[in-house]
Specification:
The protein is mainly β. It has one domain: Sandwich (Immunoglobulin-like), CATH 2.60.40. 9% of the residues lie in helices and 48% in strands. The chain is built from 1 helix and 13 strands; from the N terminus they run αβββββββββββββ. Strands 4, 6, 7, 8, 11, 12 and 13 form a 7-stranded mixed beta sheet that branches. The chain has a 4-stranded antiparallel beta sheet with strand order 3-2-5-10, with no helix packed on it. A two-stranded antiparallel sheet has the order 1-9.
Length: 166
């Protein structure tokens, strides 16, 4: 059994490792956050991770991967969202995409009167094992984010397509 002091120190270190970097908030910031899309389990790179350019099509390695939208702004980020629609083709029958009525994931930053996160990330896992076996899929992915200004500047990234073949 470990002494309580050791356990408390490990718990504090684990909690602080998860906290986002903060910056001094600029309530009058007019610059939108910079948005990047990163995909894991890509077939385009040896390590399976790549930053995806808007308008790109990326093939995922089976059984799938993760799509991460990251928003950066040196003067603060209030929130970030990842949006996604899905198309499915099974036995020549094509379904979708439907309308994305809400983000797949929304992450709020801890914005205070004087500080805000300098970056936030929202992600989604795409797993063929949870989808219909034998079908191919296309996911349109994009992101939205707002800076931490009193009147936030909201930016939306362009679409990127992720494909997952059986």
């Amino acid at each position: 059994m470990r002494p309580p002091r050791f356990t408390a120190v490990v718990a504090i270190l684990m909690l602080t490792a998860c906290l986002p970097d903060t910056t001094t908030r600029d309530k009058n910031d007019t610059a939108p956050p910079q948005i990047t899309l990163t995909v894991t389990a890509s077939t385009n790179t040896a390590d399976g991770t790549e930053v995806v350019a808007p308008g790109s099509t990326v093939k995922l390695k089976p059984p799938g991967g993760s799509a991460l939208i990251k928003a950066d702004n040196a003067k603060g980020v209030a929130w970030v969202e990842i949006w996604m629609t899905q198309e499915k083709t099974c036995n020549g029958v094509h379904e979708g995409p439907g309308l994305a009525g809400a983000p797949t994931k929304h992450v709020d930053g801890n914005v205070t009167d004087t500080s805000a996160p300098s970056s936030l990330t929202a992600g989604v896992d795409i797993n063929l094992l949870q989808l219909t076996h034998g079908c191919s899929y296309k996911f349109e992915v994009w992101g939205k984010a707002a800076n931490a200004a009193t009147t936030p500047v909201i930016v939306q990234s362009a679409f990127a397509d992720l494909t997952l073949l059986p």
